Amino acid sequence: MTGSLFKGNFWSPDILSTVGYDSIIQHLNNGRKNCKEFEDFLKERASIEEKYGKDLLSLSRKKPCGQSEINTLKRALEVFKQQVDNVAQCHIQLAQTLREEARKIEEFREKQKLQRKKTELIMDAVHKQRSLQFKKTMDAKKIYEQKCRDKDDAEQAVHRNANLVNPKQQEKLFVKLATSKTAAEDSDKAYMLHINTLDKVREEWQSEHIKACEVFEAQEYERINFFRNALWLHVNQLSKQCVTSDEMYEEVRKSLEMCSIKKDIEYFVNQRKTGQTPPAPIMYENYYCPQKDAASSGKATGVLNTGRRGPLPVPKSLPGDPTYSLVDNYSLIYQ
């Protein structure tokens, strides 16, 4: 950096003009405002990251996600939940990092503000001194010009009245001329003195203006460099967050690669099996001959096997006899 761009391009032919200086100050104020905007941006991004991290953390820890899974898939899900938890923690940590970066920008802004304040106070003083001396000089010039006109008028009066016979009147004219000459000479000296003083003030202002330009250009160089690096760092932090998250998710992918469908099914069978013997066929049981039929009948079908039933007994008594209700000595009538 040469430091000559500002001091060579912000002048004005008008000795009272501050247009060049004002242009630089406005630019520096805009730069400071831009840094403040980026600082606020980082703070807002930090709030977003923190909220996202906390919400993700709450999701990971409170929301069920395949909680009844078993064996290898269960372990993969546990890794998944843990890595989501880790990603959430990383976002919360990123929020803290962003707030720290915002704090650094604020400190940088305040440092430049204090540095500028010293130069601005000096420039305000020389601007005021320059304006004041310029006014005094212009006032002295007006007085000088008026005294010169008065002297000229007195000389013309003497010439116009050179042939007057009244010596007293001539004496008055000569006295007035002498007085006007003295006043003109005094005003000329005062005017010259103010001109010299103004030139010294101008040189002092010009010197301070050059110094201010060099200070401000150095500050702007430093600000742009700082701003660019801060933005670069911010993007790197976001990239690092993505890389870190991907590394954590890679752990989940690795655990899923270890997941075995066959092993999980076998694990379930071994842990929850209820037996290897299916139920036996339900055998048909004859209502009248349960023992005989149970030993001789085949599988129960739920349909009455009339082909294998024996003949019904023939009653030995008539309906009116007491023994009418006996079947193979089994009475249906209770006495």
UniProtKB/TrEMBL annotation:
<dbReference type="InterPro" id="IPR042694">
    <property type="entry name" value="PSTPIP2_F-BAR"/>
</dbReference>
<dbReference type="InterPro" id="IPR031160">
    <property type="entry name" value="F_BAR_dom"/>
</dbReference>
<keyword id="KW-0963">Cytoplasm</keyword>
<keyword id="KW-0597">Phosphoprotein</keyword>
<feature type="domain" description="F-BAR">
    <location>
        <begin position="4"/>
        <end position="264"/>
    </location>
</feature>
<comment type="function">
    <text>Binds to F-actin. May be involved in regulation of the actin cytoskeleton.</text>
</comment>
<keyword id="KW-0175">Coiled coil</keyword>
<dbReference type="GO" id="GO:0030041">
    <property type="term" value="P:actin filament polymerization"/>
</dbReference>
<feature type="coiled-coil region">
    <location>
        <begin position="91"/>
        <end position="118"/>
    </location>
</feature>
<dbReference type="InterPro" id="IPR027267">
    <property type="entry name" value="AH/BAR_dom_sf"/>
</dbReference>
<dbReference type="GO" id="GO:0005884">
    <property type="term" value="C:actin filament"/>
</dbReference>
<protein>
    <recommendedName>
        <fullName>Proline-serine-threonine phosphatase-interacting protein 2</fullName>
    </recommendedName>
</protein>
<dbReference type="InterPro" id="IPR001060">
    <property type="entry name" value="FCH_dom"/>
</dbReference>
<dbReference type="GO" id="GO:0051015">
    <property type="term" value="F:actin filament binding"/>
</dbReference>
<keyword id="KW-0472">Membrane</keyword>
<dbReference type="GO" id="GO:0005886">
    <property type="term" value="C:plasma membrane"/>
</dbReference>
<dbReference type="Pfam" id="PF00611">
    <property type="entry name" value="FCH"/>
</dbReference>
<dbReference type="GO" id="GO:0005737">
    <property type="term" value="C:cytoplasm"/>
</dbReference>
